[in-house]
Amino acid sequence: MVRRLTVALAAGMITAFAASLAVAQTDVVKERQALLKQFGDVTKPVGGMLRGSVPFDLAQVQAALEIYVKNAKVLPGLFPAGSDSDPDSDALPAIWSNKADFDARFAELGTDAAAARAAITDEASFKANFPGVIRNCGACHDNYRQKN
Questions:
Q1: Is the pTM of this model over 0.85?
Q2: Is residue 32 within 8 Å of 86, Cβ to Cβ?
C-alpha cells in the first residue's frame, strides 16, 4: 500500500514537473516573440526614414536603438534548449545547433546599436550609421528564421 502510494505520488510529481516545463517553454517562446515584434514595430518607421517616405525623427530613431540595445541583451537567454518545438515559432533548428554564433549576433546588434545611438545626431549621421545596425537583423533572419 505504501509502495503504491509512493509510486503514485512520484508519478504525479513527474507529470506536474513535465507540465510546468511545457508551460515554461511556451512562455519563453511568447516572451521572445514579443521582444522580436518590438524590433519590427520600431524598425518600420525608421526604415521609412531611410527610404525617405517618413520624415526624419531623431527621437524615434534613438528610441528604436534603445530597444535594440535592451532586447539584444535579453533575447539570447530566451532561446533555451528545448524551446525549439513550438509550432507557432519561426525559429530554425540552426539556432540551437549553432548557439554561439546566434548569441554573438545579438551581442553584435547590441554593440552596433549602442555605437549608432551615440553617433546619430542628425539625418546625415542617421543615414550613415543606421544601415549597419539593421544589417545585423537581416543576417540573423537569413540564418535563423524560417521564411514565411
A1: no
A2: no
